[in-house]
Amino acid sequence: xxRAIKNHLSDFIAILVLVVLAVGVTGYIxxxxxxxxxxxxxxxxxxNAQFSTAQAVTPGQGQTVRVSGVQIGTLSGVSLKNGYAxxxxxxxxxYKGVIxxxxxxxxxxxxxxxxxFVELNPGGGPAPVVKQGYTIPLAQTAPEVNVDEILSSVDxxxxxxxxxxxxxxxxxxxxxxxxxxxxxxxxxPTHQDLARLNQAVAVRGVELQHxxxxxxxxxxxxxxxxxxxxxxxxxxxxxxxxxxxxxxxxSRSIADLPATLAQTxxxxxxxxxxxQQLGPTAQKLIPAANALPAANNALxxxxxxxxxxxxxQIRPFVIAARPFVRNLEPASIxxxxxxxxxxxxxxxxxxxxxxxGYNPAAPQHGYLWWLAWLGHIGRTxxxxxxxxxxxxxxxxxxxxASMSQILNEAGPLGPIVLQGLNLDTVLADTNLCPxxxxxxxxxxRNFQANGSASPYSTANPSVASKLSKHGVxxxxxxxxxxxxxx
Length: 486
Fold this sequence. Notes:
The structure is a single chain. Helix content is about 60%, strand content about 10%. By secondary structure, the chain is of the alpha/beta class. Among the domains are: about 35-145, no CATH class; about 270-355, no CATH class; about 400-470, no CATH class. An eight-stranded mixed beta sheet has the order 7-1-4-3-2-6-5-8, with no helix packed on it. A hairpin with a 2-residue loop joins strand 3 and strand 4. The chain is elongated.
């Protein structure tokens, strides 16, 4: 046999390829026809649907089970039970949890050749998921309706009208079927919208059922509560009657409502201002609040040792001092009456002491300084006697400004005052009296410039020689300077 294969190797390979192709094609055909290949086909679970008629249902011809246009299984068998057709459906395992016990099944043709499939509405909601071998009841299925069944259900006149309509439509569409198809194709979006509308209406139908059920339960509950409802109506009547009797007060309240609202608005505005201030204030109080625990601890540490002192010492002292305090009440009242006069007296004393200590912003000493100077002079005057006998010693202090004022106010007696009090030597010295000495020297130079023969003529030659150094004098020629008093 090996020799034969070797001699006819090309023919053997061709036959082998044909066998493999035949097996592959056969497997594909069987798979498309719903035949289950062991270890190859995907696992499935089966459910049944009860139909009044299973016309044109042929298992093994690739008839499918669809949900919203998606194939989820195939029709794998049909049988008769109690006068109804039981259609067996093989569903893929991955769609097992999609179908519920409230699912609905409809037989529909894919083409005009009665190529049938089952359109399955999987249901949902509170209904449980179906199990292996579950049968959808007849009430949840609908078979295909043929045209002759529709015509047989109408009367003779309606059939004639339908025949006339069909004949007229045939004459109108003679040779224009493509245009009608295009028109129907353009209506597809409308049909899609209508489908969504129908779904919404169906949802509303379910909700309407729930509403009717709820109304029924409400009516049942109201029937059991008739007595309470009657009492409520009577009470409501009394309330309305009382409200009607207070119509005037209600009207006045409504009339006062605008002013009340205005005042409320003003108050709320002020509250808003307060709230705006309260926020930063509260923020600033946070550190103090954070410090409260430590303060409470410190207060507790202080209060614990202080409690025996307050209890055993301060409290007995207060109890013992209470009669004495009651006796002090009349004296306190008299003291309160005398307080205004005491305030006035102490105010005068305070002003006098302030006057003694007052030192104004001027080149003068305060009153206390002059008081001390007066005490010093008095002590000097009455301390000792000098060689003049009973004459007391005296010390006079005069400022340059005071001497200038005395000299300027002396008039014709100016030379006598200047020479008798020895003021010419002091006022001419710029080291002792800078302002007066400078003014005197300037005025004396002007006097010499006027042609005076002798700058000085005085009865005291020794003083004249001393004064000539400072440029002040010529008293004999009546030279008398005018000096500043400040």
